[in-house]
Amino acid sequence: MRKMKVILNPVSGGGLSAKVWKKVEPVLIEKGIPYSYEATTKEKAAKDIAKEAVKQGYHWIVGIGGDGTFSNIINGLIENGKIFHKDVIFSPIPAGRGNDFIKTVKVPKNPIKALEQALNGKERNIDLIDVTYTKVDQSQGKYLCLNLADFGMGGEVVYRVNKSKLGRFIGGKAVFLLYTVVCLFSYTNKKITLTLSKFEKITNLCRLIVCANGEFAGGGMWFAPKAKLDDGKMDLLAIQNVSVFETLRKFGNLYRGKLSDDAKVISKQITELTAESDEDVFIDVDGENMGKLPAKFKVLPKVLPIKC
């Protein structure tokens, strides 16, 4: 059996992850599964712990947290587009606000059931999205997206959600919905140029652009019902120049997975995307603010081994 490293974000889900660990640890002890445990700190991110763990011979990385924690961990497991070590595998145990990635991989929200599934589940390889973005100082940054990246109004929504303490009281789905509605009345649509290939370019006022690897985001919003984690493609959804009230009317379709059917939504499956704008358009990757445009999004097929 691979040596197991458990990585915990103590602030995920408003402190829920610590409670989840108290339930998970006794099961590992009872089953006699050897493990090492480490929590993230301000000085040491999950990706740093993951990378260090692999160098120390821990090849089974178990993450306890939300989408942001899982995403940060896998950024420590991949180097130059390849897995850091051929024997490494990743397993997620949910303890976040939105818990969207686990919906696509069908991991139970119950931590004990999630652990059992990680211990007994099949191994498979999934895609990631390589994001190259622009930093505040205009230099380039890189980050790997596990679940979903978006830019436009979504960047402001995520900023407010991450600053809010409401999630611990009203739940992840409700807090995302709340700030989405708030931002509807404060965000101005931006003129954005999307290059899908050298033969296809789109320039339009846009409210939100989504590059989806997984199906869900925003605490249960069903952005990409056709998305598959291992098909070598990402699902593009470009919500064009819609008004506040038009957007509000689309919420029902979004939660039912029908947004791509809308006439004002461009929906395609692609492998690469370049996005540019003369305005400040901020990017969200797996629930974390990650620079601004110009940016490039590229699928890395079946690069991450998971077991769940």
Walk me through the structure.
This protein has 308 residues and is an alpha+beta fold. It folds into 2 domains: 4-121, Rossmann fold, CATH 3.40.50; 128-307, Tumour Suppressor Smad4, CATH 2.60.200.40. Helices cover 29% and strands 38% of the residues. The protein has 9 helices and 18 strands. The strands form 4 sheets. It has a 6-stranded antiparallel beta barrel. The protein has a 4-stranded parallel sheet with strand order 2-1-3-6, with helices on both faces. Strands 4-5 form a two-stranded antiparallel ribbon. A hairpin with a 2-residue loop joins strand 4 and strand 5.
Radius of gyration: 19 Å
What is the CATH architecture term of the largest domain? Sandwich
* Total number of domains: 2
- Helix percentage: 25-40%
Q: What strand line-up does the widest sheet have?
A: 9-11-10-16-18-17
Describe this structure in a few short sentences.
The protein is of the alpha+beta class and 308 residues long.
Write the layout of secondary structure elements.
Blueprint lengths: L3 E5 L7 H15 L4 E5 L6 H10 L4 E6 L1 H8 L3 E2 L2 E2 L5 E6 L6 H5 L5 H10 L2 E12 L5 E6 L2 E5 H11 L3 H4 L1 H13 L5 E8 L2 E13 L3 E2 L3 E2 L11 E7 L3 H12 L9 E6 L1 E5 L5 E4 L2 E20 L1
Parallel strand pairs: 1-2, 1-3, 3-6
Antiparallel strand pairs: 4-5, 7-8, 7-18, 9-11, 9-17, 10-11, 10-16, 11-14, 12-13, 14-15, 16-18, 17-18
Helix pairs in contact: 2-3, 6-8
